[in-house]
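Cross-check.
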Amino acid sequence: MNYYKINFTLSTKIRGNDNYIKDYKLKIPPTGQLYWEVPKFVGNIYHEKINFEPYLLDIELFANSKVNDLIMDGGPISGKLIMSGTLKRILEKSRNTGMQFFNISILKKNEAYHDYWLINMYEFNQEFIDFKNCKIIYEKKDENFNVTYSTKNIEIHVDDLEEFENHLKRTKEKLEITIIEKLALKEDIIGDDFFSLRYVSGGVGYYVSEKLKNKIEDTGCTGIEFQPSELSYNEWVAPGGEREKVYGKL
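Predicted model, tokenized:
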């Protein structure tokens, strides 16, 4: 079966404009702290189950932005999907574990759309990755990095998840970055129609099976582009490439 990464649309026609989000209305205590200094703010909680009431936010769109089923992420909630109740109900039926939804509102001019949800994914299926056939880029700091801030991109090869995790342990000590630029999946062991992976392009990626993709499209959900999992982001958005064939020119 084919699998696809969920991306927010790049189409200005569907977005309404290029900027899309006007403001993030954070609901954190007025203590003078910046949002990244507040541990209970939902955008600061990564890859773990939330067992308390986190501080949330509302998202304000520009007046000419379109309210889609998938809302652009970024800013204080980078890496977390924001979706309509319609899309939420489809996704939560496709997976039984490892995710939580928190209710937020989308604001636009004088209107508020209350059936919107932010997902907190705390289970990742790294075992689905076929590491031998991935293209993995290691951003290695130069020896004089503290002076030049220069890095060198090195393609590395690992055989399995254990070897990849050992590499991450070594490089995290130096605050170096490793990204799976081109993904390969062990399709024969995937048992979920919706799952999430770390260390892919964009940091965290959310993936659906072709069956679930078709269901989302048949429901009429807007604001979503489905990138084939085997394509790198650059391959996907290349002029004349697969994205252009499906969704039109940028």
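The CA atoms of residues 47 and 122 lie 4 Å apart. The first helix runs from residue 12 to 15. Passed to J.P. for a second look.
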